[in-house]
């Protein structure tokens, strides 16, 4: 019966002794039928538990490694089916599928490469959309709010009514317009800061640090050690987003202090490090936030690492190989 199968199959007794093997199994392991008969199947396959530990009339699928007669080891998947013969005695069918490890690794590399390209495409698409939104905001909302402010200032000069309520309402309108202008500029800056495109990454980081210091009254220092003109627009945007999102995270954590940023070059690599103190500010490497950061770094052809020093200091480091730089 098992010889009809093109996949390697071993028939095993409950104790683990091999009773029979089909031709494909003999070719896979390199034994003759006589050599395999009565041999313990655990000598051929690394299974998570012994055959006798599997539930009766059940089935199990496992990743495993096998050993050929010549000692060569190979990766495989093992499908185990426990059944009963017509005489009610239990038998175990073990189907073995060899895995081509190199082919598996090549496939994994291909999938990872496609994932990086997809992330790069989505990030670029998002940045383009942000730029369009910022332009629309500046061209329409910004100009409209500015026109309202000019008209309001003109009205203030022309109004001769000394009624307190009138003056209060006009002042309220002026304050609302100022708030609208501030909100438009702030939203536009968060979407796509003009300083990044006009003055480069170093200037954008300094602006971010200034905003963080102003809002949170927390010390933050940026060590500018690299000429950012050597970095392409894509790298500038990707690194800026990692910094922006990290700073936003620190604002939410609340107890971060002594924040330090460093952009530098070492051993032919571009490095960005962001460090801070504060126990609650630590973010696990497997958290969704860090996963997003790692994917951003991978889209740039780089890597992201996070470490915790003995002094309770957290450091995020992004490394981009020299050959990636434009």
Would you mind describing this structure in some detail?
The structure is a single chain. This protein has 326 residues and is α+β, with helices and mostly antiparallel strands. The protein has eight helices and ten strands. Helix 3 (101-158) runs antiparallel to helix 4 and helix 3 packs across helix 8 (288-299).
Task: Set down the secondary structure blueprint.
Blueprint: E1 9-12, E2 18-21, H1 23-29, H2 33-36, E3 59-67, E4 73-84, E5 90-99, H3 101-158, H4 164-191, H5 194-199, H6 201-216, E6 220-224, H7 233-253, E7 257-266, E8 269-277, H8 288-299, E9 303-308, E10 313-321
Parallel strand pairs: 6-7
Antiparallel strand pairs: 1-2, 1-5, 3-4, 4-5, 7-8, 8-10, 9-10
Helix pairs in contact: 3-4, 3-8, 6-7
Annotation keywords:
single chain; 326 residues; alpha+beta; Beta-Lactamase; Heat Shock Protein 90; 5-stranded antiparallel sheet; 5-stranded mixed sheet; 10 strands; elongated
CATH class of the largest domain: Alpha Beta
Number of domains: 3
Instruction: Give me the secondary-structure category.
Output: alpha+beta
Q: Report the major sheet.
A: 5 strands, antiparallel
State the CATH superfamily name of the largest domain.
Histidine kinase-like ATPase, C-terminal domain
Low-confidence stretches: none
Tell me what the CATH architecture of the largest domain is. Answer: 2-Layer Sandwich
Return the string of H and E elements.
Answer: EEHHEEEHHHHEHEEHEE
Shape: elongated
Number of strands: 10
Tell me, rounded to a whole number, the average pLDDT. 81
């Amino acid at each position: 019966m098992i010889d009809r199968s093109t996949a390697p199959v071993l028939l095993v007794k409950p104790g683990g002794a091999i009773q029979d093997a089909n031709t494909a199994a003999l070719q896979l392991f390199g034994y003759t039928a006589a050599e395999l008969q009565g041999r313990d199947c655990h000598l051929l396959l690394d299974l998570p538990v012994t055959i006798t530990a599997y539930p009766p009339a059940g089935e199990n699928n496992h990743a495993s490694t096998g050993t050929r007669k010549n000692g060569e080891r190979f990766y495989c998947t093992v499908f185990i089916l426990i059944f009963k013969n017509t005489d009610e005695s239990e038998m175990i069918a073990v189907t073995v599928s060899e895995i081509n490890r190199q082919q598996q690794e090549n496939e994994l590399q291909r999938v990872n490469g496609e994932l990086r390209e997809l992330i790069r495409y989505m990030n670029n698409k998002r940045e383009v959309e942000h730029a369009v939104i910022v332009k629309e905001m500046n061209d329409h909302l910004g100009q409209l709010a500015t026109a309202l402010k000019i008209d309001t200032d003109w009205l203030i000069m022309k109004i001769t009514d000394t009624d307190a309520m009138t003056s209060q309402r006009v002042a309220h309108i002026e304050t609302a317009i100022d708030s609208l202008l501030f909100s438009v500029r702030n939203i536009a800056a968060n979407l796509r800061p003009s300083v990044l495109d006009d003055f480069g990454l170093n200037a954008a980081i300094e602006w971010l640090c200034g905003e963080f210091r102003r809002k949170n009254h927390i010390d933050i220092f940026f060590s500018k050690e690299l000429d950012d003109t050597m970095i392409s627009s894509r790298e500038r945007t990707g690194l800026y987003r990692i910094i922006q999102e990290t700073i936003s995270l620190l604002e939410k954590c609340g107890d971060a202090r002594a924040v330090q940023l460093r952009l530098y070059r070492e051993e032919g690599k571009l490095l960005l490090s962001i460090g801070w103190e504060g126990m609650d500010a630590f973010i696990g490497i497997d958290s969704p936030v860090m996963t997003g950061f790692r994917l951003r770094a991978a889209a740039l052809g780089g890597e992201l690492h996070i470490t915790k020093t003995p002094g309770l200091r957290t450091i995020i480091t992004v490394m981009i190989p020299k050959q990636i730089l434009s």
